[in-house]
Amino acid sequence: MMKMMTVTLIVFFCTYGYTDMISGKKLFDNAKCMECHNIKDFNDKTVRKAKIFTQLEDKVSACQMENNAYWFDDEVHYVAQYLNKEHYHFIEKE
């Protein structure tokens, strides 16, 4: 019984984080972020302006305001999580 409960909780938390990533990717794609950025902006460490995860969130927030994406704070966080997982690999502290 305890094993089943543990496995269920692990699956729930993994799925929860995964859905945030999917939401972040959808928001990123729908906002057409790549019209202003190119892949070098995300992968080249000499081009990056963010040095830690909170700065990345701030940059995402600024971009969405500039482009009238009208994201909520949690949506900004999802996009930052997506970019962090795919490109930046900062340690995320909440």
Q: Can you characterise this structure?
A:
It is globular and about 50 Å long. The protein starts with a helix and ends in a 6-residue tail after the last helix. By secondary structure, the protein is mainly alpha-helical. It has helices at residues 2-30, 39-43, 53-66, 73-88. Mean pLDDT is 79; it is low at 11-16. It has one domain (2-88). The relative contact order is 0.16.
Task: Characterize the overall form.
Answer: globular
Q: Unreliable stretches, pLDDT < 50, 5 or more residues?
A: 11-16
β-strand amount: under 5%
> What does the radius of gyration come to?
15 Å
How many separate domains make up the residues? 1
| Beta strand count | 0
User: What's the order of the H and E elements?
Assistant: HHHH
Helix and strand content put the structural class at mainly alpha
- Count of alpha and pi helical runs: 4
What is the first-to-last residue Cα distance? 32 Å
Largest sheet: none
Task: Please estimate the helix content.
Answer: 55-70%
Mean pLDDT comes to 79
